[in-house]
Amino acid sequence: MSATQDLLIEIGTEELPPKHLKTLSEAFLSGICEGLENQHIQYNIANPYATPRRLAVLVKGVAVQQPDIPVEKRGPALAAAYDKEGKPSKAAEGFARSCGVAVADLEKLETDKGAWLVFRTLQKGQATVELLNNIINNALDALPIAKRMRWGSSDFAFVRPIHWVLILFGQQVIETEILGVKSGNTTRGHRFHHPQPIVIPNADDYAKLLESEGFVIPIFSIRQQRVKILVEEAAEILGGTAVIDPALLDEVTSIVENPFPITGEFEKEFLAVPPEALIATIKGNQKYFHVVDAQEKLMPFFITLSNVHSTQPELIKAGNEKVIRPRLSDAMFFWKQDKAKPLAERQEQLKTVIFQDKLGSLLDKSQRVAVTAGMIAQKLGANPQQAQRAALLSKCDLMTNMVNEFPELQGIMGDYYARHDGEAEAVAVALREQYMPRFWGDTLPQTPIGQAVAIADKLDTLVGIFGIGQSPTGDKDPFGLRRATLGILRIVIECALPLNIRTLLREAEKAYPTTLLTQNTSEQVFEFMLERLRGYYQEQGINSDSIEAVLSCQPESPLDADRRIRAVASFQQLPAAESLAAANKRIHNILKKTEESFPDHPVFTHFTEEAERVLYNQLNHTAEAINPLLAQGDYQASLQQLAQLRDAVDSFFDKVMVMVDDEKARRNRLALLQTLRGLFLKIADISRLQG
């Protein structure tokens, strides 16, 4: 046997959960590799295989044996190992016995912290095959399986019943038992096209034999690419384009061992139903791909993947069409029924749905959000009455049959029903936009009314949940407050909205009964939002010093904070940045230690040194130059102006002693430094850029 062999491990099962197959495969690969590494077994590369009925890993170039591992056991300190005559103590003799050697065979270890007796030896490496059972079982035990099941009379549990186990080390069959199933060198082909066992003579033959003889494409990524190509080609024949959702592509790839496309169609009258509802049925219920035309309008076709290469595909086509028709009929029925009752008439039903026990019903929430949304809309120059109307209707579609069947359509169906009811366009769009962004990277609301309602709704949840003492702890965030906060910040910053968050939080707090929330709720939420703002910029790779320099000033407008942070990040690249940051830190320390009072502004006639006069004059000149820039929010240009103070500041600290005995000079210089620091603090605490 050569020094390395290829290792193949395959676990054959009943159909694995399609939504989790990819994750399970990646975790199994990781577990096997980690097991080999923990045992110091070297290997070259590992490849995963995953189909509906198997998890497998092929590890190339696996060492046939562990290396010999140096072992060092530390014994008693030398001072306790020998008596005054130099004879071994009982402690030394006991340690030697435990190591199976004489005291004379022990070595000495001397370090800065002391000296000890030590036993050194080489632990002989075990053969890899002797370690595989534990490595495999540990990898299986570590798989992210929410609920394991037992089958038959077995005491073993796994995500699905196990039918076969294949373990090969090169050509050697590793005979062991995994979860109650004895291993061998046979696999199974396609459940229908080649259900017979297939003997794998060599680990490296696995994939090609499974595909050529077993009618199975074992590599997930290759099978997935084939699914994608087949779906795209089928859509092209239909004269449209397939919409391929990545999650659905993963799921369909996890259902078939060898894909074959089947196209189907449905009656055009179903297209009268909002396309999102039809797509929810096509994708969610049936796992089909839908097709759109050149204008991205839904076409009356679908594409599914069969796991069988049928000689009569038209029968499979007819069967799928028969299955989807009742589903689409249900959607049409819901659409017609829901339109019969206007959204506004569903408001009263919101009383029956509790938002949170202490915070009341969804009707209570809608009424609070309406107040805040109206105020935000006014600040954005939009129609406050439309914002209030949108907020009051925002949860009404939750009371419809369609949203009850497809919860993911909340807001979307509200838009359709509002249009049918004759509500204003801005109100209808806002109902769709209220939940945006639903996740990181999702689309943001683009209309002022939609932005107002989306922000107000999230603010209400934040203030309410914080106010009753249920703020997020650790990984627990049942109300999605972190996501809500990030959503608000993204809307305000990325849509360039000039909103003061602290003011909005106070207004949202006022919408609640005065005795319901704890004191300082809005301030707690404000601090929480600043922390999430810090994470928002860290994810973008912005220097943490730049972030802290701005957030330490507790900016109340996220948009203004964004401009400051990006300006400070640019300022850091200037040659003067390091010197001015150091000077600001020095000024901060001087002022912090000063207990005496001093004027708010220095007096020019009290200066005695040329360097302080020069700094004073340049400060006044710079203040005049940057005040209009600050008013425009042009912080980058402002900091470039401030950077020109570098020489004057350096000269001041080189030539002027601040804490002199002369009280008038000392207090005047402290006022000068405070003026200098105050000018920088209009943008950020530059002292935090230091180190």
Verbal overview:
The model has no long low-confidence stretch (mean pLDDT 92). This protein folds into five domains: 149 residues, ACT domain (Alpha-Beta Plaits, 2-Layer Sandwich); 55 residues, no CATH class; 120 residues, no CATH class; 193 residues, Hypothetical protein af1432 (Orthogonal Bundle), CATH 1.10.3210; 115 residues, Isoleucyl-tRNA Synthetase, Domain 1. The strands form six sheets. Strands 1, 2, 3, 9, 10, 11 and 12 form a seven-stranded mixed sheet that branches. Strands 15-17-18-16 form a four-stranded antiparallel sheet, sandwiched between helices. The chain is an alpha+beta fold and 691 residues long. 48% of the residues lie in helices and 15% in strands. The protein contains 25 helices and 20 strands. It is flat, with a radius of gyration of 36 Å.
